From TrEMBL:
Belongs to the glycosyltransferase 32 family. GO terms for cellular component: mannan polymerase complex. InterPro entries: GlycoTrfase_DXD_sugar-bd_CS, Nucleotide-diphossugar_trans, Och1-like. It comes from Clonostachys byssicola. GO terms for molecular function: alpha-1,6-mannosyltransferase activity. It comes from the Eukaryota. One of its GO terms (biological process) is protein N-linked glycosylation. Keywords: Membrane, Transmembrane, Transmembrane helix. The chain crosses the membrane at residues 25-46. This is Initiation-specific alpha-1,6-mannosyltransferase.
């Protein structure tokens, strides 16, 4: 068998030359085809990953709409994308009672936290309490005494928790989520891989007026939620938000109530419009307008049916963080829509 094989091998080149001479055009095209096919195959084998990523990201710009330009020429797919830090933050501050000592802690307050743990193994989970909040603020904002002072003197636990989440996400990044939220998808799945590197902030919508009536105490056409926020550290939106919160809190103390901060009891609207979702919506929208000057009003984000990438912000449509509500075309038929990442249970009584 071996000699025969050898024989064949030896004769092969001469056969090719022979047939080339006989049918030059057809054979030359065939050889050319073989060479091109091999080059393509080798290229594909080496660059399969980046090839697919490039294809996907071309697609993504269409799926996610305008505004999603790449940062720079660094080749996608060659490095593992840098996503949101693997940290989950919850805040549990004692709710003061006028008529006695604070309520004793109840494990039921954290009954939904296991959903976050089980869907996010290897994430660092931190429940920030009263002492941790003070230590964190003292340690990180020593050069900004107004932040420390305001944080310590705020008596409204809702406002305190609002302010603390912005400060935590600014310094540490990760996901902040209220204790009355249920995780539906692991955080790794919130941002598709092909845009993980460029998404620095993920915000959800809690209310979209669409073509309906205004909602009590919601001043915007569309309101972003702050019961869940995901961010990379040092995002400028939190600097803007903390500035806004300090400004609004100072206004409440000096003008609206004309009393020291530690003695005022703001209304629920004042909470929402100083540190809460109305103020957050003002600030996020102002930031989005810097990225996309064609945005004039939150109404321009109404009727979204899928996530939208605006600069470095991934804005989720209502079902992302706000499924199960009776407005805003939120899915509310007992099913869990595929776009849902988080469910908010509205158990909190943060307003008082
Ligand atoms: C390009 O992007 C990479 C990763 O996002 C970043 O580290 C780098 O600083 C950027 N370079 C420029 C010139 O913007
Ligand atoms: C909300 O607060 C801002 C800043 O403190 C203020 O300018 C604005 O008028 C307030 N909105 C309403 C509807 O009161």
């Amino acid at each position: 068998m071996l000699p025969l094989f050898h024989e064949l091998e030896k004769s092969l080149p001469s056969r090719i030359i022979f047939s080339l001479a006989k049918r030059p055009y057809r054979t030359a095209s065939f050889v050319l085809f073989l060479v091109l096919a091999s080059i393509l195959w080798v290229y594909h084998a080496i660059a399969a990953e980046s090839f697919i990523t490039l294809f996907n990201s071309g697609l993504s710009t269409q799926v996610f709409g305008p505004g999603g330009g790449r940062h720079n020429g660094s080749a996608p797919g060659l490095h593992k994308p840098v996503g949101i830090p693997m940290k989950i933050w919850q805040i549990m501050l004692p709710k003061p009672r006028d008529d006695g000592p604070p309520h004793p802690p109840d494990p039921a307050q954290l009954q939904d936290t296991p959903s976050w743990l089980v869907l996010n193994p290897d994430y660092k989970y931190t429940l920030v309490g009263e002492r941790g909040g003070i230590e964190f603020v003292d340690k990180n904002f020593a050069d900004q005494p107004a932040i420390i002072d305001t944080y310590k003197r705020l008596q409204n636990m809702g406002m305190k928790s609002d302010l603390l989440r912005y400060l935590l996400l600014y310094i540490e990044g990760g996901v902040y989520t209220d204790t009355d939220t249920v995780a539906i998808k692991g955080v790794d799945e919130w941002v598709p891989d092909f845009i993980k590197s460029e998404v620095n902030l993920v915000v959800g919508i809690e209310f979209d007026r669409r073509d309906g009536a205004a909602w009590a105490e919601i001043p915007h056409w569309l309101q972003f939620c702050q019961w869940t926020i995901a961010a990379k550290p040092k995002h400028p939106v939190f600097q803007m938000m903390v500035q806004r919160a300090l400004y609004s809190i100072d206004l409440l103390s000096t003008e609206v109530y004309d009393s020291p901060l530690d003695s005022i009891s703001p209304t629920s609207f004042e909470v929402m419009n100083s540190t809460g979702p109305a103020a957050w919506t003002d600030v996020v929208f102002e930031y989005l307008q810097q990225l996309d000057p064609s945005l004039e009003d939150t109404k321009d984000l109404s009727f979204m049916t899928g996530p939208r990438l605006i600069g470095d912000v991934l804005v989720l449509n209502i079902d992302g963080f706000g499924m199960g509500q009776q407005h805003s075309k939120s899915t509310n038929d007992g099913t869990i829509p595929s776009q849902a990442l988080v469910k908010h249970l509205f158990r909190g009584s943060w307003r008082s």
